[in-house]
Amino acid sequence: MTFEEVLIQKPTEHAQCAGTALEEVLVTAKDNDSLTVGVYECAKVMNLDPDSVSFCVLAMDEEFECDIALQIHFTLIQSFCFDNDISIVRVSDMQRLVEIVGDKAEQFEDAHCVLITNPADGSWEDPALEKLHLFCEESRRLNDWVPEISLPER
Questions:
Q1: What is the rounded distance in angstroms from the CA atom of residue 12 to the CA atom of residue 9?
Q2: Is the distance from CB of 35 to CB of 114 less than 8 angstroms?
């Protein structure tokens, strides 16, 4: 999909397309062992090797509304992403995010933050990731700095 095609989409189609693209990217990154899950684990990666980070997903849930420390972590992660030109989105269905990035043997206690990193052998080309970067770029032009994406249901 070209940038022009993204621009002419209706907002609901735009968000649905971004949700599908996000799911595709997360599955591909998981298969390539290019995911980091958890606020503290993500903060470590961002601190040690910020250039390896390609995309950031922040997941909101009921806990987020009541947890001031988590809100502060989100603010710091968002700031870091802005300073390092890392595309960032929010999702409101953390359970669905855990279904995508986890497996039955692995249960994540903290999936509030997920990073998609470049593999050790360099960056990987993914049309779905490019769609997400275009979606984030367009959202920023509309002053929506951390757009919310709905993940598709199973």
A1: 8
A2: yes
Tally the C-alpha atoms within 13 A of residue 78's C-alpha that lie toward its C-beta: 15
3-class SS letters over 97-130: HHHHHCECCECCCCCCEEEEECCCCCCCCCHHHH
What is the full per-residue pLDDT of the chain (154 aa) written as tens digits?
555 555 555 454 556 789 999 999 999 999 989 999 999 999 999 999 999 999 999 998 887 788 899 899 999 999 999 999 999 999 988 889 999 998 755 666 788 999 999 876 666 678 999 999 999 999 999 999 999 999 998 7
Nearest alpha-carbon partner for 15 in 154, 153, 147? 147
Q: How many residues does the chain have?
A: 154
Distances in Å between the Cα of 121 and the Cα atoms of 32, 117, 118, 153 are: 11, 11, 8, 33
| Pairing, β 53-59 against β 87-91 | parallel
Nearest to 111 by CA among 119, 103, 120, 102: 102
Distances (CA, A) of 32 to 25, 36, 66, 126, 132: 10, 12, 35, 12, 18
| Angle, CA 120 vertex, CA 54 and CA 39 arms, to 5° | 50
